What we know:
Distance between the termini: 37 Å
Strand order of the largest sheet: 1-12
Enzyme class: transferase
Number of strands: 12
Mean pLDDT: 76
Order of helices and strands: EEEHHEEEEEEEEHHHHHEH
Membrane topology: Multi-pass membrane protein
Structural class: mainly alpha
Helix content: 40-55%
Catalytic activity: L-cysteinyl-[protein] + hexadecanoyl-CoA = S-hexadecanoyl-L-cysteinyl-[protein] + CoA
GO molecular function, one term: protein-cysteine S-palmitoyltransferase activity
Transmembrane segments: 38-56, 68-89, 181-206, 226-252
Largest sheet: 2 strands, antiparallel
Low-confidence stretches: 97-125, 312-327, 353-362
Amino acid sequence: MKKYQDPRVKKEFYKIWETANKIFCNGKIFTGSENHKLLASVSFITIPSILFYVFMSPEFAKNGQNGYTVVFVLIQLTIYLLLSITVCMDPGIIPKIRPEYEMEEELLKVPQKYSKSDYRFIVDSKMFTIKAHQFKLKYCSTCAIYRPARASHCPSCDNCVVRFDHHCPWIGQCIGRRNYVYFYFFIMSVSFMLIFVFGTCISYIVDESKKRAEFMDTSDAVSETIAHNPVSIILVIYSFGFSCFVVGLWLFHSYLVLTNMTTNEYLKKHWVVESKNPFRRQNILKNIVQVLTCISQLKFLKLRQSVYEPKDYMQSPIHTQNHVNEANDSFKNKDEEQVQTDNRNKNNYISNNIQMITEIKS
């Protein structure tokens, strides 16, 4: 067995995978390609939150309204949790070719390369049909894979992503099949926070102005309330301005969820035809379930998977995991052929010896 011991050096995949994504803690933490944008978004959430705690919470405490602060803390913790999961979760990257990439049974029939170890296959046709729609299977030359329907290549992260929605410029991460549900609830939570801050600050200004209006004009009472706590009006303006964008974004994605459509498909107007979206379910509830659930079995990226070091036997750098797998398969096949050849020679040697012994006895 020592004769066939593999001399190649194995490494974990994240050490040789060339990608724009950031990898930390020996492949345990995976983030998007633009973390500086993530930090900017976190600051947009954290700075006004600090102002709320420092200037508004004490005022609410004086009026016996501590519940406002408790609700705000819960919303903020939810936002940070959902944001962390969205950024650190694999969005559905397809690093190597497998047939398990889609939930639709029809999509499992798309042509792929053939490999015995991964049960891949290849056919001549590059077209397939789903609910009367003709889909042309696109080959990604960068990732060296045939992309399934609704998958697309993100130029920012340099990856093909299953059910690619968009590359979010606010958090610097791709939004795909696996992390879309967390992204959706993240923007929903931010929308609730902005609406909550706007409502509580307006309520504070109105209540304090009414108290002062007993001794002065209403306009003077409002001016004195704002002068006493100017942060309240700052938070009103801030929350109103950002809510126009964030709440609108949440409503837009709610529409996409109800219609089972992606941002990429909406912008490119893929389904502006009479037969409409073939992925749309029979009713709204089924669309919601299909989009916001069933993501656990879509894990393809294995950053800590052991692969062979490519430098010794490949002339070009490794860009995708399927390159490594194909190289591993080729070496595996060579080893198998060598073993078969040796076994064949051994069998021939034994048969020749048996024949010689037979002849001597005869």
